[in-house]
Design goal:
flat
Length: 204
């Protein structure tokens, strides 16, 4: 019995050690995954910064270029001499370049003309569309006004029929007048907003 107990204790201890080792492995895996995720986030942030701020990189490049220029002041001095030599030697080449540039400018102007016409067409189409929309809105407003007038007329049809009971020249029936009185008192108590405008209107 004692040997069995000792074996069970040893097995339990071994199981505990194995579970501890597994926990340690899991924790290390989690830590490594978290670190990798943080590194990826940082890399993404850096990439986004580079994408959103391309101007800063361009400015840095310009600064580098400007720093390199003052180092060689002798080179620009030689260029004007070369230009003067070229001007004296090749005036005909410059005239040919000017002649080639003139047709290119004419082509650009001819390209601009159709673009201007297209813009005018689009402006005309947009103005026509605006006129159509204005006409449709006016018609809808007119129909709305007509519908509202009809509704106002139809609102008081039942009340007109009810109060026609009082227009009789003959003596009123006491039973019907009792019902009439109850109905009007109920309308006054429950539907004041609808009844009062009818009572004080000019047509009633």
């Amino acid at each position: 019995m004692t040997e069995a107990k000792e074996e069970s204790k040893e097995e339990k201890e071994e199981a505990k050690e194995e579970s501890k080792e597994e926990k340690v492995e899991v924790e290390t895996k989690i830590e490594t995954e978290v670190k990798e995720a943080e590194e990826k986030k940082e890399e993404k942030k850096e990439e986004e910064k580079e994408e959103t701020n391309p101007q800063t990189s361009e400015e840095e490049e310009k600064k580098e270029v400007t720093e390199e220029k003052p180092k060689s002041p002798e080179a620009p001095k030689e260029e004007p001499e070369d230009k003067s030599q070229k001007n004296t030697q090749e005036p005909e080449a410059e005239e040919q370049d000017k002649k080639e540039e003139e047709p290119a400018e004419k082509e650009k102007e001819t390209e601009k003309e159709p673009e201007a016409e297209d813009k005018k067409d689009t402006i005309v189409e947009s103005s026509l569309m605006d006129q159509d929309t204005m006409a449709t809105t006016q018609t809808t407003l007119n129909t709305d006004h007509e519908d509202k007038a009809e509704e106002e007329e139809n609102k008081f049809v039942l009340l007109d029929r009810l109060f026609m009971f009082l227009d009789n020249e003959e003596d009123l029936n006491p039973v019907l007048s009792g019902y009439f009185c109850k109905l009007v008192s109920l309308l006054i108590s429950r539907k004041q907003k609808q009844l009062i405008p009818y009572i004080f209107s000019e047509d009633s």
